[in-house]
Amino acid sequence: MGSISTHNTTLEWSQYCNIIDGDLCTTPRTRHGINPATGKANPEVPLSSQEDVDRAMTAAQKAFKQWSTTSYDERRQAVLSFADALETEHAAFSSMLTQEQGKPLQFARMELDFAIQWLRGIAKLELPQEVIEEEDRKIVVRYTPLGVVVGIVPWNYPILLAVGKIAPAVMTGNTIIIKPSPFTPNGDLKLCELAQRFFPPGVVQCLSGDDELGPWLTAHPVPAKISFTGSSFTGKKVMESASKTLKRVTLELGGKDPAIICEDVNIKEVAPQIAQLAFLNSGQICIALKRIFVHEKIFDEFRDAMVEATNNLKMGEGNEPDVFLGPIQNSMQYDKVKGFFQDVEKQGYNIAVGGTNPSGEGYFITPTIVDRPAEDSRLVLEEPFGPIVPLLSYSTYEEAVEKANNTMYGLGASIWSSDIERANNLATKIEAGNVWVNSHFQLDPRVPFGGHKQSGIGTEWGVSGLISYCNSQALYLKK
Ligand code: NAD
């Protein structure tokens, strides 16, 4: 493997390297992702070996000694400067995001906006320190960094979700190794390359690889914590592997978010929003709407308005104008989503809109609404992570809440009503980490994000997100 210094270099978008100990490192073997809209190969990226993992771990441990003793303010300045640099590189990152992830350019730009906002928002947070007693002795509860952290990132929001791990980890004095998804490695490698200008060698590193890399990282004895975002299935494997050395884990996993549509909504206004919240990012969002419960009194009218709104959503390659849905990100996911279509067809469920998928280049799936499939169907129980959603009905609010909660997931949910008091009241009855009234998917770096039940363990972002990267230490000091 070779290495190139990162000092005084500008970002060069044709070569992609691992970031180890402040250097850009190549590997003897490489691999690449695929542009999901065209099927063309993306630029080659490193294929890390176990030896690369060991080197990154050693560098992270070494860097931790210094970084954990720098002042909070110094770390904050580094994160803020990183945010400014990302803003300068906004256009190039957005363009690569559309190329490797498939999302329309307008939404790629939005992801970059969020990433910058998250860096700045998390940098503003203060890590609390509590004085419990100050008489004969002083008792202080403070938070100390854990050490080396591994951040494992999925392919749906590769930039935002990487930033959402880097910022709190380094703010609290940890060092972090980012592992991008093999499907979207290019942007994350550049993100960590950019970070080298603001953080000492070994503080922010990045390793790209294939399916072996994640298990090597979670099994390695050095990391104190794994921050994982991905499916509930993989999250369980991560937790099992981390348990061997009692690594801390934060698990941000899958969802099956319900929307409860009350009978008093303004149908013309709400139905298009619901369609967009189900089909944004082609349904590949942990908190996309994945079950829509509509009051039986307005069911037909609401369904027809959603169908009309869905017909207006343009699908295509992300650089085309006005595109709302890009392709599914990868072939594995494409086949998985198509499995839901096959099941719907086999069961003979009614399709309100969509249903047939284009053939040809790219993993395109038509946004599809299925009208009242069986409540124990795959589409109602499982997470397709694609643009196919069940529309269901209910007759009482008690029944709606019971159905909304009838899932192993508990990530997000929303209540839609003109009666705010009713909606707020229903919101408190939902078993989920994030519940919105008359909106959905509105996130904030100041607010802890996490799931109930099998949607995850712990929270990211907000002050409790910072604390999740720390040990709690009680100091009993003599005065
Ligand atoms: P995934 O679980 O397949 O992969 C996520 C990451 O884990 C990738 O980087 C992958 O390479 C890595 N990985 C795979 N096997 C591993 C192993 N054994 N050990 C360690 N790492 C391993 O998920 P995905 O398909 O990339 O993402 C889609 C899923 O992520 C959906 O279920 C979605 O709901 C969920 N998600 C959750 C959130 C959240 O914040 N809760 C956000 C985005 C996505």
TrEMBL record:
Reactions the enzyme catalyzes: an aldehyde + NAD(+) + H2O = a carboxylate + NADH + 2 H(+)
Pfam families to which the protein is assigned, alphabetical: Aldedh
Gene3D superfamilies from the UniProt entry: Aldehyde Dehydrogenase, Chain A, domain 1, Aldehyde Dehydrogenase, Chain A, domain 2
UniProt xrefs under InterPro entries: Ald_DH/histidinol_DH (IPR016161), Ald_DH_C (IPR016163), Ald_DH_CS_CYS (IPR016160), Ald_DH_CS_GLU (IPR029510), Ald_DH_N (IPR016162), Aldehyde_DH_dom (IPR015590), LUC3-like (IPR044086)
Aldehyde dehydrogenase domain: residues covered: 31-473
Gene Ontology MF terms in the entry: aldehyde dehydrogenase (NAD+) activity
Keyword tags: Oxidoreductase
Catalytic residues of the enzyme: E252
E.C. number(s) listed in UniProt: 1.2.1.3
Class in the EC hierarchy, top level: oxidoreductase
Domain of life: Eukaryota
Record-stated family: Belongs to the aldehyde dehydrogenase family.
Stated name of the protein: aldehyde dehydrogenase (NAD(+))
High-level lineage: Eukaryota, Fungi, Dikarya, Ascomycota, Pezizomycotina
